[in-house]
Amino acid sequence: MRLLATDLVKVFPGVRALDGVTIDLLPGTVHALLGENGAGKSTLIKVLTGVHRPDGGTLRVLPDPTGAPSVPGPGEGEELSFAGPSQAQAAGIGVVHQERNLVPGFSVAENIALQDVPRRRGLVDRAATRDLAARCLAELEVDLDLDRPVAELSVAQMQLVEIAKALATQSRVLLLDEPTSSLTSDEADHLYAVVRRLRDSGRTVVLVSHKLEEVFAIADTVTVLRDGRSVAQGLPLSGLTRSEVVDLMVGRAHADLELDARTVDRDATPALELRGVSTAGGHRDVSLVVRPGEILGLYGLVGAGRSELARAVLGLDTITAGTVLVDGGEVRIGSVGEALRKHRIGYVSENRKEEGVFLEQTISRNVAVTVWDRLARWGLVRDRSEDGVLDRYAERLGIRLSGPRQLAGQLSGGNQQKVSLAKWLAADCRVLVVDEPTVGIDVRTKAAFHELIAELAERGLAILLISSDLPEMVTLADRIGVMREHRLVGEVDNDHHYATMSGKVIRLVHGEGAEAPAA
What we know:
Distance between the termini: 58 Å
Strand content: 15-25%
Radius of gyration: 24 Å
Strand order of the largest sheet: 5-8-9-3-10-11
Shape: globular
CATH architecture of the largest domain: 3-Layer(aba) Sandwich
Number of strands: 21
């Protein structure tokens, strides 16, 4: 099925999200959809999948240029108009969102068949449900226990169930939104193999990703959006370089970020220190220090326990042994609020949609929430006071907004992350825990985040940086600690040369050597 969208327009109050976008999706290809945060990618996906109705343009099915026989679905030349996602699914268009949409308590088979549950005499046909799920998983060459609850699966396995779920609805066009954002490199390689099999079976796969290395690894063609317009449409990736693609995305040449070296006083009292910490989550005997003006990176595979360690320090999990010190004094923190009020420790969560921002509240309220006690007069906080806090950080962080009363949930992912960071900057923290700061963020915004984090360290903040992006870690961290199976297995001083540092870190990740902590 060849799907052609021509001159699509979508307007929201104060924003022209799509301004004449054209995209031609050919069967048997992997088509990358790229653009900065706010470029219109999410809106385009929602139009293609029936969540939004376009205000202009057309969406139609055209004959397969390869001459392949037609498949069940809309007729050739037919103009499509979707009143909702179910109609898009019926037309053969499926989507796997970055935020998984599975029922944790249901089995693998039940989740796969959930969109159109087989029935017999008005009751769920269990045998047919299992047969459908088995066929979809077999097409992906994935072996999963059909009766296993989805809650017991790994992140990568859940992603594959999502894809099988789309296949169960006869999807001929499959949109994958940041499919590897939470996967290890080995899990991502497995997913790439699945994508290639889908392509070779004649399906169209649309890949939305900010990881250019994976785009060049598996995509055939690329469409680039900028400011709601398609500045490149269906270009063969084989004829483009990475820098040329980035230039299309940001509208200018983009050089890899190189940061000035910082000098960290190794004799200074640590701003944050752990001594032999163990937790209810399984950490054992973890010791580390972060000094003022220093960025300590925590690296490791998904499930190594990095985020869980930070959350335990902040009172979100139980510390069962060991000591936490702030500025040399022993503390026991009971909550994120206590960490901020008593110790000036901020926490930029990886989960920005559930923990980073209040999606149904205004941007100004999100940014000012950490300083309400300073803004309150007779127990009330005025909108004008919150707006003043936002004004100080909106331009500095480049938050793209229509106004202070705009809801945070209406922002792109990158701008939501900026709002999440702004609230902790407003609180004037001395220690900042930053967990996966640039997941799902475009290259220019990522560079801006890197510059900002380095600037904060230069100003004297102690930063604990958790990231699964090794180039990001090598760019930013002064020291890199590696975690494996909830233990800190080694630590290395960072010379900021990727070729040498990546080898050292990867060997630690896979247990091929350990280095004594550089503290």
